[in-house]
Amino acid sequence: MQAQAAATAEDAVTSPSAPVGDPELREHSAADYPALSALWADDADGAALGLSAADSLAGISQFFARNPGLSFALWEGPQLIGSVLAGHDGRRGYLYHLVVRADRRRHGYATLLVERAMSALAAAGIQKTHAMVYAANEQGLEFWRRSGFVTRVELVVLSRETGISSGSTSPVPEARHVAGGA
Ligand SMILES: CC(C)(COP(=O)(O)OP(=O)(O)OC[C@H]1O[C@@H](n2cnc3c(N)ncnc32)[C@H](O)[C@@H]1OP(=O)(O)O)[C@@H](O)C(=O)NCCC(=O)NCCS
User: What residues contact 25, with CB distance under 8 A and at least 6 apart?
Assistant: First the structure.
């Protein structure tokens, strides 16, 4: 029995597709950044997330510091298999970069992450939350719609640079940044 458990734990480290029991949901912290950037970079359709210089270690650390207890990670042993970033401005909530590792999709893990983040936002007094999704990401849009999010056809997101340089390194090469990032 012990030998079997040891073999299972070893498989989890050496083989990315070997599950290790139920995944554990935990609050994100800046210490997760190496695993998080690897999960983002691993995503074959990483453009779906719209990564940019705002997703550097400095940017994400600042996001977690400003929004404690709202972003969640799903761990299978030492492996990060899912993540959602959540924050609010005191008025509305925002969800970003929801991702589940490709070989763990369609098990309800994204739903688990989103519902946990929504509960945390509700506990912070936030009544409504927006999800930023690229219009071309049809699978992502389908997930959000199935989760009760409604496309706001009457609204358009407009963005402008403030003029400062990010001064930090993005987790993906600049060539893969998506039109300024969300
Ligand atoms: C979108 C994503 C996060 C969904 O993760 P997931 O863990 O597979 O999602 P769930 O298992 O919780 O799916 C819940 C429901 O959403 C819908 N859904 C999820 N993925 C879907 C897909 N690829 N196509 C159509 N519907 C989908 C289904 O209705 C699903 O229920 P079902 O499996 O019983 O049919 C995952 O596919 C992913 O990481 N994609 C790449 C990154 C991305 O696009 N993120 C969203 C942009 S912010």
Answer: 72, 73, 74, 112, 113, 116
> What topology is assigned to 22-176 in CATH?
Aminopeptidase (3.40.630)
Q: Are 24 and 74 in contact (CB under 8 A)?
A: yes
What's the pLDDT score for residue 165? 74
Question: Ligand 1 centroid to 100 CA: how many Å?
Answer: 8
Counted residue by residue, the chain has a size of: 182
Closest ligand 1 atom to 132 CA: 48
For the packed helices 33-42 and 57-66, what is the interaxial angle rounded to 10 degrees? 120
Mean pLDDT by 10 residues, the chain (182 residues): 39 50 94 96 74 93 98 97 98 97 96 98 98 92 98 94 74 57 72
- Atom of ligand 1 lying closest to residue 114 CA: 12
86 C-alpha to ligand 1 centroid (Å): 18
Say which residues have a Cβ less than 8 Å from residue 179's Cβ, sequence separation at least 6.
50
Instruction: Please state the pTM of the whole predicted model.
Output: 0.87
**Can you give the residue ranges of every domain in the chain?**
22-176
Ligand 1 contact via 85 beta carbon (within 6 Å): no
pLDDT of residue 110: 98
Question: What is the pLDDT, as a whole number, of residue 21?
Answer: 75
Whose C-alpha lies nearest to ligand 1, atom 39?
Answer: 99
